[in-house]
## 1
Amino acid sequence: MPSLRHLEILRAVIRAGGVNGAARSLHLAPSTVSVQLAGLARSLGTPLLRRRGRGLEPTAAGLAAAEAAGEALEAVARVLAAVDEAGPGVLPVGAAEDVPQAVVASVFAPALAVPRPPRLHLHVDHPARLFDDLAGGGLAAVLADRAPPPELDPHARVHRLTAAAVAFLAAPALARRLGRGFPRLLDGAPILLPEPGDALRRRLDQWFEEARVKPRIAVETDDPELRRRFAVAGAGVLPAPASGAERDGLVRLGLAGGVEERWWLISRRASRDPALAAVLAATRRGA
């Protein structure tokens, strides 16, 4: 099903006569425009553009789609204006599945503190899919554990949040069993880790190698809250933000020196949206 953003891109390409001109007018990378156009053609089941010299021109189907899109976009603009006058709307945002729930809540909570708070629609997914939704206009902002790819949008607003030191946490009974002598106590200890390929996992694997310890992997999962549940049950040692040591009764065994959890907030919508502006302002104060 084509989105309005797809149709807006099609109209821009027809006006500009090519991908590069459309990309400049929409403040998108040319590769993003090409991907969105290909997706639109697949969803409609027919070619929408054809080569003409060095540029592109619409097929009959493309021209019909662009004309209908213009009417649809005008109708949507009228609807949005009416909704804005009637009351607060919806703020669609995304959070990468590896970002802890506490971080997600703290980042987006300012959106609900404005005088007329919107309904916060929060979508949790893999970062790559969230970045695609952001580029396609389906999301106003994305909170992720990695920086966006350079081709996402040269004009995207990228805010790096304050990094958090990583500590090794354990349930009291497990901490007593492991004894003293950090980091040697981690050698052979059961540990709860993100799956291979995760940004934090890569940094931790390097730290283990440099510290010359080899923990025994008890659980691998990209769900940070599930890893914490296992830690509370005493199933293993949990690498997590140091500030969360006291939560759920876990105790700190030591710090992973030089290893940090990092998060980025990426937005495209203009900050005239008061709810998103509040989120971005809070992010800048905390950076």
## 2
Amino acid sequence: MFSSIDYDLLTSVVVYLKVKNIKLENHFWLMKTNNFKVFAEYYDRIYLNRKDYEKEAKIVKGIIRQFEKKQSKTLLDVGCGTGEHLKYLSLDFQCNGIDINKIMIKTARNKVPSAKFEVANMINFRLKETFDVIICLFSSIGYVLDLNNLIKTLENFYEHLNEKGLVIVEPWIFKKDFKKGYIGLDTYEDEKLKFVRMATSKIVGSRWIVFMHYLVGEKGKISYSREVHKMLTLNCPDYVKAFGEAGFKDTQCLAENLWENCRGLFVTTK
């Protein structure tokens, strides 16, 4: 299970970092990424006990029924991750999912055999099908990195959407909500694995740069790795304008507390 503060585990982290002479500094040029391999491999360990995917999927379904202009039958999840939302949404919709991470898509295929999955980039993916609903949840949209790519991505959503179709997007954390000096901490522990992730961040222009540090203890060994996640950070009016430039009208920004740690939802139609 996750623990908010595990003092024994944290003590081990501090000792290990000192022994290895590793400093948790916010210097991009010191960081080396590993193509998000650790993030993907341990993703479900991190989030399955933090997020209530079934509840979130139920809320998303309710929003679809509330805002749809026709009955929705087909759904595309962009940035679907390991397919946890689709596990529940596939009970009501014919589902497809795309993600740029091959490891996550492999996991998703095993979880939701009734859905179709492809490895693809949300900015320029091309599918033969079009859909009644396109969703992009848990801030996946942030990985487009800049405003131009955001508009291209939303235009791509528009092209893959059926007439009167619905788009739902959960943004990355709004720029106004940045907390300087904040350190994120996640831990996981079972009989075979001890896992720690700590993260700091900074904003450079419109990019929210997250520096993730991992300690993984298993099979009698402890390994350390680092990742840099660069996210586009904007405020609500910037997103609404981008949706408009992509062709959408009457975009609405729903509350940020629809579920725990929800960063708001943009809802719009074609």
## 3
Amino acid sequence: MNEASCVFQVIEETLQADRTLSVTAMCEIAGVSRSGYYAWLNAAPARAAQEEQDRKDFDLILKAYKVRGYAKGAKSIQMRLLHEDPSVTMNLKKIRRLMRKYNLVCPIRRANPYRQMAKALKTSHVAPNLLKREFENYGPRVVLLTDITYIPYNGRFAYLSTILDAYTKQILSYVTSDSLEVDFVLETVKKLIEEHGLSLKQETILHSDQGSHYTSHKFIQILEDKELRQSMSRRGNCWDNAPQESFFGHMKDHIGGSLKGCTEYAQVKAIIDDYMDYYNNERYQWELAKLSPNEYYQFCLTGEYPLDVPNPPAAPKAEKSPQCLGCPKKDEAEDTVETENT
């Protein structure tokens, strides 16, 4: 309600309470015109109809907000509505207006307190950084990112290892553990091969930080056995693995409230399992053409957009050939030649 409407509302309530007062006098005191007041009064049916429509639209917004129990912002709500059956089209401006009107707030992400957590002792092995932050240039199943995060609960920690497709944002493999033994990281790679091995390419890389799990002899050996190329971030540079870090941050924001009631590791694992299913299948993302990661992967494969909308987007295409991944850039190659010649 704008300022003028508020004034007219006060005048109307005052006149209803005291019939001896005149409209002219009240409008003069309030500094508004009689014509404006009467125009506002005559528009009452239209305002009532608008209020009823707002309520109906907000009910749809609230239903989308509550799906699977995970809070959503305006963009996530719009994408959720598009996936309803039948699809609901509602613009972002209206969604944001109604969220403000009815005080529906999506929690804002906090900084990840685990990003700078120190790693344990390492071997001397450090793989080259083949990726160089080109996360989305090579198409599906070429750039895979992996990392470990700590999940605090009841004064203790659970641990989560994931492998994320940098292009489709799918979580292709994940393993939870109640200890930091290296084997749970190896299990993540084994699950990747078992469930997605046929879709991997000869050029596929698995990119990580320089933590002890990824420099261990066992991890290096399993990558060689599975014919996966290894790539590593520069030391202490979390931006070299940014999409994986971002996934952990959003996940913790979504499940943080549920974790507060956990007293056992099994409860934490159940919450993570539920979130992974939600994320891959129903966590719609703006940069993925408003699709979930699994939907986006199918869109990449088939070229068929799954939503019935006007002017559907074109099928995604890789900017570079997978054969180029890990090749030195032109300026780097020229610098190398110049160094060799001096």
## 4
Amino acid sequence: MAKKGATVKVKMVSTAGTGYYYVTKVNKKTKTEKLVKKKFDPRAKHPETGKPGAHVDFKEDKVK
């Protein structure tokens, strides 16, 4: 039988509070700290124009 890998699925939740999220894989052996990435959130309001869609930080959370 094959060994299980070290990669785990994690949910990246928007810090803008819109409830939008991405699901990605992370290698827990090499990345021990919480992951934070700047990605596009189509529900967030852009701070300068007020239009929907902005790049915001996404923080790691558990997949349920």
